[in-house]
Amino acid sequence: MAYWLFKSEPFKFSFAALKALGAAGTEWDGVRNYLARNNMRAMAVGDQGFFYHSNEGLAVVGIAEVIATAHPDSTSADPRWECVDIRAVRDMPKPVTLAAVKAEPRLAKMSLVTSMRLSVQPVTAEEWAIVLAMGGL
Questions:
Q1: Do the beta carbons of residue 131 and residue 60 sit within 8 Å?
Q2: Contact, 40 vs 84, CB < 8 A?
C-alpha cells in the first residue's frame, strides 16, 4: 500500500462533501499538473491518502481511500489528463495543521512542506505514521 495527500480548497470541495458521497466516492478531477497526474497514475486501489484543506483551514482533516485507478478525467476532453476515484474513510480526530507539520522536525522533507502547491502528493510510510499520531490515530 502507498500513501498520498489530496489537497482541496474546502469552499470548492471539502472533506464533508466527500463523506456525503458515501462509498461511491468521486473522481479526483480537475488536476492539471503533470506531476500530480503522474502521482495518480501510480496509485492502486486501497491506497490511503490524507485529505488536506488548503487556503482555508490549512490542515489534514480526514483520510480517503483510492477506489478506482487512473482513468480519463471526465472534466477534460484532453486525453493527457487522468484522475483516480476516492472515497472518505474517516475524520482525523484532531486536524493536523500545516503549522504543526512544519514544526515537526521528522516531517521536514514531507512534500506538504517542500512542494506546497502540488495538489496530489506522495507521503512516506514514516510520514503517514507521524501525521496519524499527531491527529490522534
A1: yes
A2: yes
| Residue 82 and residue 2 in contact, taking contact as beta carbons nearer than 8 Å | no
Q: Quote the mean pLDDT of the chain.
A: 97
Q: Residue 70: count other Cβ atoms within 10 Å of its Cβ.
A: 19
Q: What angle do CA 19, 20, 24 make, to 5 degrees?
A: 80
Whether the CB-CB separation of 74 and 50 falls below 8 Å is answered with no
Whole-number pLDDT of residue 116? 78
Q: What is the DSSP letter of 74?
A: T
Strand order, beta sheet including 26-27? 26-27, 82-97, 59-72, 48-53, 3-8, 120-123
Q: Report if pTM > 0.85.
A: yes
Contact 92, 62 (CB under 8 A): yes
Question: Can you tell me which residue has the cell 476515484?
Answer: 85
Tens-digit pLDDT profile for residues 68-119: 999 999 999 999 999 999 999 999 999 999 999 999 999 999 999 998 789 9
- Under DSSP, the state recorded for 113 is H
